[in-house]
Design a protein that fits this description.
- Residues 1-29 form the signal peptide.
- By secondary structure, the chain is an all-alpha fold.
- The chain contains 1 helix and no strands.
- The longest helix is centred in the N-terminal third of the chain and has 33 residues, at 2-34.
- It starts with a helix and ends in a 32-residue tail after the last helix.
């Protein structure tokens, strides 16, 4: 009877890990299909900053004079 008891938690853990992996996979697929968060966002290419070189990403915001 002890072999059966030790098998139940292991099966529950494996089931939980599989469910967690499936949820992450579905969330990733939905996020990829939805696209960027905002219309102006683009993938970062690792290049120089496009806001005039300040590096803070706030170059085009109105009312934010330096």
């Amino acid at each position: 009877m002890t072999a059966r008891r030790s098998l139940v938690p292991r099966a529950a853990l494996c089931g939980f890990v599989l469910l967690l992996a499936a949820l992450f996979g579905v969330a990733y697929a939905v996020g990829s299909a939805a696209g960027p968060v905002s219309p102006g966002m683009h993938r970062s290419g690792g290049g120089p900053a496009s806001d005039g070189g300040s590096g803070d990403g706030m170059g085009d915001m109105p009312g934010m004079g330096h």
